[in-house]
Amino acid sequence: MAIKNHLRLLFTAGSLLATTFASPVSRFEDDDDDDTPLPVVIWHGLGDAYNADGMRQVADLAESVNPGTLVYPIRIEDAGNRDRYDSFVGNVTEQLAKVCADIAAHPILSTAPAIDAVGFSQGGQFLRGYVERCNNPPVRSLITFGSQHNGITRFRDCETNDWICRFAMAVLGTNPWSPTVQGKLVPAQYFRDPEQYEKYLEHSNFLADINNERSIKNETYKKNIAKLENFVMYMFDEDTTVVPKETSWFEDVNGTEITPLRARKLYSEDWLGLRELDRKGGLKFRTAPGDHMQLSDELLTEAFGDFFGPLNRHKGRSDPRPASHVGDEESNMGSGGRSEGRPASRGGDVESDMGNDL
């Protein structure tokens, strides 16, 4: 990725300093013609860190597409190595509460009329959790890349020398439903096995709640999702890391049977507000070529240009309604490569050096 000299972010001692703006009060105007881009928050994937080179480059690209954009990479801790550790180990509900408090207290984000959000892999469903549970400031457009919105049915493979990953995955293989595992290991909290659905409903610490799958529905979750202007879900058409890959589109996979989102009760009974959002044209299904999280500059530029920028500029271009399977997709979804839970630099693309991150 070409590094732009006008990057608006400085990372000092692990902290993001927005040096371009002297006063948060003057950052946004109550004017329909104001061309100030909305701030963008980014949540990275499993095995990544908020201050990794690839994340900085994604922030740079977002700013270059819409000059003047304040980009805030979400972090659980300021030290990058601890932030990476927290992507494997921690209570997602507690982590999300911290992120909600951090964003609400940020001197610039908190003054914005809205923010835009992009989530890479597991960061996508975590940002959806932000929309549902907090949404202060509210999200206008949410873009997710290869996210596990309907959970995963198996855990990822690890690099030989990635001991944090190997330890976490070994523990997950014992009993993913135990209180200790559900409260401490991040991937377990979006594990969803159709053959153990009742255990999932009873024990899931995170996903069963934010998907509103339990008998008592949270109406706030539904209202907040329906308020989005755009919810853009990218699925990687050759994803071998996320199983099943169709989870990125909220599809339900049980063995060889694939149930598209619009054929599910979650949609027909509108547990999450997705049907309401779809009917107003805000629910968008897109594909990216290649394996998990190998993203090209072109694809990211297209996404950021279509859905981010000033508050009243546009609502994003419309997409054809997707067919049931990737191979039947009717639309031309644009160009892209592959990428991983952590985007990092290689040539002209944003790619990962993590191999199999979520």
Task: Give the SSE layout.
Elements: E1 10-12, E2 15-17, E3 40-43, H1 53-65, E4 71-73, H2 80-86, H3 92-105, E5 115-120, H4 122-133, E6 139-145, H5 163-172, H6 179-184, H7 197-203, H8 207-210, H9 219-226, E7 230-236, E8 252-254, E9 257-259, H10 265-268, H11 274-279, E10 283-288, E11 295-296, H12 297-307, E12 344-346, E13 349-351
Parallel strand pairs: 3-4, 3-5, 5-6, 6-7, 7-10
Antiparallel strand pairs: 1-2, 8-9, 11-13, 12-13
Helix pairs in contact: 1-12, 3-4, 4-9
Choose one word for the global shape: globular
* Strand neighbour order, sheet with most strands: 4-3-5-6-7-10
Derived structural class: alpha/beta
Helix/strand order, N-terminal first: EEEHEHHEHEHHHHHEEEHHEEHEE
Helix content: 25-40%
Main sheet makeup: 6 strands, parallel
Which runs of at least 5 residues are low in confidence (pLDDT < 50)? 1-26, 320-356
Question: Kindly state the mean pLDDT as a whole number?
Answer: 83
Task: Determine the strand fraction and express it as a percent band.
Answer: 5-15%
Radius of gyration: 19 Å
Number of helices: 12
Can you count the beta strands? 13
Q: Alpha-carbon distance between the termini?
A: 22 Å
Could you write a compact summary of the structure shown?
Its EC number is 3.1.2.22. The chain has 358 residues and is α/β, with parallel strands linked by helices.
